[in-house]
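BUG-425 | component: ligand-complex export | severity: low

The export step for NAP jobs runs without errors, but we want the raw record kept on the ticket for reference. Input record follows.
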Amino acid sequence: MSSGEKIKFLNGKHEVPDFPVIPYIIGDGTGPDIWNASVRIFDASVEKVFRGKKKIIWKEVLAGEKAFNLTGNWLPKETLDTFRDHFVGIKGPLTTPVGEGMRSLNVALRQELDLYTCYRPVRYFEGVPSPVKKPGLVNMHIFRENTEDIYAGIEYMHGNPDTEKLKDFLIREMGIKKIRFPGTSSIGIKPVSVEGTERLVRQAIKFALEKRLPSVTLVHKGNIMKFTEGSFMKWGYALAEREFADKVFTWDQYKKITSTQGEKAADEAQSVAVSQGKLIIKDVIADAFLQQILTRPADYSVIATLNLNGDYISDALAAIVGGIGIAPGANINFDTGHAIFEATHGTAPRYAGQDKVNPGSVILSGALMLEYLGWNEVASLIYKSLENTILKKKVTYDFHRLMDNAILLKTSEFADAIINHIQTD
Ligand code: NAP
């Protein structure tokens, strides 16, 4: 048996050996339950497709509580080095204390490896219980900027000397009068750059063109945060017009030649783009978007947005198509080839060790990873087997409570049911 080889990234492309070594973090809380279930599915599907000619060689790396207990370090340097060396990895959820203590390990991983795109596909699987009438209309690809915005972690706690110095600078030197209660305010800083915006929007547009999707929508709150979120929109449009001039038609271009306003202009611009065989680039304000994913989801395809908006949007969309129990994600730097695939939910600590929660998010994140490596047949087999299992109404507690006459399975039993489909369908 081969001990495996590293994946390489040469001339903008991955070279994937037949026995690639893939590092994984098992995760905290419910992480071990869902990882142990998911890895059996990955191995079974690779075996079914390649019959031993290809196989993933898993390499555990430490992070989170397990890392702290074993090494005294929440995110050992060796873990980062291993992800850097192997290019592609996968992780379970990791604990982050709220309002105190260490910063998020997930955010640290994204920033250390400069994984600037958080890619989250949102699609409906037949049979999944949904709170809306037509969940099948949702088919979106979220490109969330992953390294900037309020998530950069530049925050100052009220009372600390640095915070008071900063407030003093803002009030005395900059003449800021808008801090309503300066004596007790904490401060957060929201960096949004041209480079950060452009590299994210560029990938969203490339993706839409490659997959022949109808639109890219820039989602922002630029009416209020004009220089950060508003600039994200402007820089996004400018990049689209500059780098993809012959392939896209932007709503911004259309706004300059029409007197029509609002949604109607967007619809008209869409028609012009279709008539010219071009990809439409449009924008929408984040709060309106959160309404429209309920009222007219079919209008949206690829979404490019800032970090915090992307976080809210992903969870809202995940809820429409069945909840965060089956919401996959990937953190990617398309330029260096580094990518870490992960469930979008957290550690759900109250269910830890109960063999209870839905492993769907990690299973689908793994399927995304297999697609990213070009093992598309394996990914398709996983999608089909997961869907067939749910269609048979064999589900974990989160779906069971929303379905009539469903069969309640534990995490491990749900994996067994999927593997059964992988082997026999
Ligand atoms: P959470 O762990 O995502 O759990 C919130 C709720 O989501 C759960 O109570 C459960 O809802 C549902 N849920 C989560 N995972 C599920 C699964 N696999 N199957 C079915 N339902 C699932 O959010 P949290 O409680 O706010 O956060 C807990 C910890 O996770 C925090 O330390 C947080 O920082 C961390 N976190 C990590 C990541 C990450 O690693 N990427 C992401 C988010 C949060 P019901 O109880 O209603 O069934």
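Assignee comment: Attached the raw record above. DSSP finds 15 helices and 17 strands in the chain.
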